[in-house]
Amino acid sequence: MTAFYHVCFAVPDLERAMQDFRRSAGVEWNEPASDRLGEWDYRIVFTTGGPPFIELIEGAAGSPWDAAEGARFDHLGFWSSDVQEGSRRLEREGIPVDFSGCPHGRPFVYHHMDSVGARIELVDVSRQAGFLSKWHPGGEPMPAIDESSRG
Predict the structure, then answer these.
(1) Where are the beta strands (DSSP E) in 38-114?
(2) How many CB atoms lie within 10 A of CB 47?
(3) pLDDT for 17-69, tens place per residue?
(4) Do residues 69 and 113 touch, judged by C-beta distance below 8 A?
(5) Regarding beta strands 33-37 and 40-46, do their DSSP bridges make them parallel or antiparallel, or are they unpaired?
(6) Where in the chain are the domains?
(7) Which residues contact 2 (CB under 8 A, 6 or more apart)?
(8) Residue among 75, 41, 38 at smallest CA distance from 55
């Protein structure tokens, strides 16, 4: 089983992207949420129905999710048993850090994968219960990459 649980698009217009997915593929959405990370306000939403989820983020100019130049595929999200160790592992494997939420009190990190032209996100599994409560109430726990066995 894989720890992959979502695909994310950074978009300039959250409602439009939600509507387009709904019309084209019958995708259903949770209610969008607003939040702040560091100096950036952003809006976020996930599909209903369970993994894998589609995530949309509408971020402020200059934020990690700035889509001023147009919507884009942004990242694939994976749960990690230890996001800091996972980040060190990816760096050792030549996949550099692009942005870390850790200094902002959020245990996630983006690494840029040149081979696919996008990012991979590691999210600490300690956040999973809160994610399930917000975006998939009653959902089953999802697997995480076991960093202790990845060495």
Answers:
(1) 40-46, 53-59, 72-80, 97-100, 108-113
(2) 23
(3) 999 999 999 999 999 999 999 999 999 999 999 899 999 999 999 999 999 99
(4) no
(5) antiparallel
(6) 4-149
(7) 78, 143
(8) 75
Q: Give the pair of three-digit tokens for residue 133.
A: 């409560």
Evaluate if pTM is beyond 0.85.
yes
Q: Which two tokens stand for residue 18?
A: 């939600």
Q: Is the peptide bond before 51 cis (omega within 30 degrees of 0)?
A: no
Kindly state the tokens that stand for 97: 């850090």
Range list of H helices, 26-136 = 83-92, 128-135
Instruction: Note the CATH number of domain 4-149.
Output: 3.10.180.10
Residue whose structure tokens are 């994976």: 78
Phi first, then psi: give them for residue 29, nearest 5 degrees: -120, 150
